[in-house]
Every structure is written in structure tokens, then in C-alpha cells.
Amino acid sequence: IYYQSVGRGACLNLNLPPDWRGRINENDIRSLTEFRRVLDATFTKDLAKGAKLTASNTRGGAKQFAAKNVLDQKRETYWATDDGITTPELVLDFRKPITFNVVSLREYLPLGQRVDAFALDQFKDGQWVEFAKSTSIGNLRLIRGDYLTSDKVRLRITQAAACPALAEFGLYAEPAQP
Q1: Is 4 in a helix, a strand, or coil?
Q2: DSSP codes joined into one string, 22-87
Q3: Cα separation of 149 and 122, whole Å?
Q4: Average pLDDT over residues 43-56
Q5: b vs e for 131-147, b when ≥16 Cβ sit within 10 Å of the residue's Cβ?
Q6: Rounded-to-integer distance, Cα 109 and Cα 149, Å
């Protein structure tokens, strides 16, 4: 439910009513505590941090719009392309293979939602292999799938209303479930 709501830029309504005592039930509290633990364990370490970034285009070649901005965890900085460049690519290159199963993307929303469609690829056996594609990014897009191990990950914007302005590109690994 979290990935289908928050992971698509919406709110998550937990809908926890008080019991006959006017308190949240102990079972619900245990469940929420475990839910928080899993979220913290998943999103504490961004595996993309430290990656070498290569962008197919950077707006005016300016540092202000550099690809590295997607890894600084600041919503007010972003990677952007020149006007008219609506299908750019961004590659994360790691020194050694990483294993992940969650991708986090976020647009710089003061400029509006621009991305209409995108795809994600991993570098496998000497070639790019698509592992996910979706529509819109907006405030937050979480893509959750099978665990992948790769030393390169590529984001391809396949359709956009205007030049993309991306504030976040993160990779995460959910903890193994007991």
C-alpha cells in the first residue's frame, strides 16, 4: 500500500480508529512500529550516493543544473536539461556492483511536473537491459521490484512536456524479511 500511495506522490491514510478505551489498539501499535522499522531500514542508506553521474545533457553546461544535484538530498537543487531536450538520459556508475530493489525519483516541483514517461535500465552482460518503466514522476515515484545487482543504472526520460528537472535519484535495498 505504501508503494502504491506514497510511492506515487500521494498520502497514506492509515485509518487507525481508537478502541473502546479511546486508545490505539496494541496490535496496531506493534504493526506501526514494525512498519516504521522497515521504512527506516529501507531508506536510511541511499546506495546511489557516491556514484559517478553522466548526463546526456546539462542545462547550459552550468554547475547549478549538474547531474550530481540528484544525489545531494536537497529538494531545492536539481538536474535540468536545455530547452527542447525532453528525452535525456542519466547514468549512475558505481565502482563495484550494488544490489537494490527500490528506485526513488523526484522532480523539482516549483517548475511543475514535466516527466510523462520514463524507463530504468541496468548494465548486464555488457549491454543495457530495461528493468522498469512507468508514467510520471512528480513529487515522488518509488519503483519496487526484484533485487538487482549491477554496477551501472540508467534513467531514460522517454516523454516529457518540457525539459526535465529532476531533484532526486536514489537506489535502496529493502531488508530481508524474517
Answers
A1: helix
A2: SS--HHHHHHHHHHHHHHHHHHSS-TTTT-EEEES--GGG-GGG-GGGGGS--TT--EE--TT--S
A3: 8
A4: 95
A5: beebebbbebbbbbeee
A6: 31
pTM of this structure = 0.90
Written as one string, the DSSP assignment of 87-120 is S-EEEEEEEEEEEEEEEEEEE-GGG---EEEEEE
> C-alpha grid cell for residue 58?
546539462
Q: How many residues does the chain have?
A: 178
CA angle 146, 148, 151 (to 5 degrees): 165
pLDDT digits (tens, 9 = 90+) for 142-163: 999 999 999 999 999 999 999 9
Q: What is the CA radius of gyration of the chain?
A: 18
Residues contacting 156, CB < 8 A, separation 6+: 87, 89, 118, 119, 120, 121
